Amino acid sequence: MNNIHNLTVVILTYKTNEEILTDCLNTIDPQANILIVENSKNAVFKERLENKYSNLNIILSGKNLGYTGGNNLGLSKVKTKYALILNPDVILAKNFFDEINKYLDQKINFHIIGTKYIDDLTWKSSGSFDEFDKRIQLRKEEKSYHDSLEVVDWISGNSMLVNLDNFETKKIFDENFFLFFDELDLCRRIKSTEGTIYSSKNLLIKHLGKKGSTDKKYNLEFEMLRNWHWMWSTFYYQKKYYGHLYAVYKNYGKLFRSMFNLFLYTILFNSQKRKIYYARTSGAINAMLGKKSWYRVGSLFQ
């Protein structure tokens, strides 16, 4: 039985390289609904893509809501039971929708199902909390009743199948996170309520990563963004679950190294490195001071 009609693919974009996005869209089954959340007011982008794909709709958020806010907005508009959250720089394997169709029924109860990288040697797509953080002891002995699924504690957020019926609200992400640690936080909350997270060995993807998700002319701006939010989100995640003092203990070394590199690249007149370490330093200090995740592209200096 074909259940693809009960699936909406949610893709979040912001100054995304359109060639990369097109490559992604061309690997999606035409029977699936596609909902793009464009984190801007780019009406030209909306008109161009909606005219090109009959099964695609675009929401213009009006501003950059980040990964969490953008995906929460998209999920709030989903009318199907299942949603596939997908990064725009992901290429799906040819048999991806044949395999995902097997999970779109009532027989398998889950909160989220993650995917596997075609080349799973460089980056892990799933894992257990105890290997990520020795302080976490949420995992218990479980097994899957489907031969292609493995019970895991966390999965990568670049592509994940969500069963919306198992969530009390479609606002599933903590919007205090703008970037990084958002899916880890989601998985931890799911596991704490004895929800089920699977990784599928048959849902194969290729993920280009940061080199392919944005237009090259914005490379430095996005590198600053990533570094600021990596520092901020690391601290916020640890503070959320372990307290402020523990987070300071775990991150003060990163702060001092960033400050040292900021000074070093300032005296060496390396403008790009100076901006990156300024962003890292600023992210760490703002997190330690309890400031919200306010940095967006262009918010610092260019």
Give the arrangement of secondary structure elements:
Layout: E1 7-13, H1 18-25, E2 33-38, H2 43-52, E3 56-60, H3 66-76, E4 82-86, E5 90-92, H4 96-100, E6 112-117, E7 126-127, H5 129-132, E8 149-151, E9 154-155, E10 159-163, H6 182-192, E11 197-207, H7 219-242, H8 244-267, H9 271-288
Parallel strand pairs: 1-2, 1-4, 2-3, 6-11
Antiparallel strand pairs: 4-10, 5-11, 6-10, 7-9, 8-11
Characterization of the model:
- There is one protein chain.
- The protein is of the alpha/beta class and 302 residues long.
- It has 2 domains: 4-211, Spore Coat Polysaccharide Biosynthesis Protein SpsA, Chain A (Alpha-Beta Complex); 216-288.
- Helix content is 38%, strand content 18%.
- It contains 9 helices and 11 strands.
- It has helices at residues 18-25, 43-52, 66-76, 96-100, 129-132, 182-192, 219-242, 244-267, 271-288, and strands at 7-13, 33-38, 56-60, 82-86, 90-92, 112-117, 126-127, 149-151, 154-155, 159-163, 197-207.
- Strands 1, 2, 3, 4, 5, 6, 8, 10 and 11 form a 9-stranded mixed sheet that branches.
- Helix 2 (43-52) links the parallel strand 2 and strand 3.
- Helix 7 (219-242) packs antiparallel against helix 8 (244-267), helix 7 packs parallel to helix 9 (271-288) and helix 8 (244-267) runs antiparallel to helix 9 (271-288).
- The termini are far apart.
Share of residues in helices: 25-40%
Count of separate DSSP helical elements: 9
Morphology: globular
User: What characterizes the major β-sheet?
Assistant: 9 strands, mixed
Q: Which class of secondary structure composition applies to the elements?
A: alpha/beta
| Beta-strand percent range | 15-25%
Along the chain, the helix and strand elements come as EHEHEHEEHEEHEEEHEHHH
CATH superfamily of the largest domain: Spore Coat Polysaccharide Biosynthesis Protein SpsA, Chain A
Q: How many separate domains?
A: 2
This entry's quaternary arrangement is: single chain
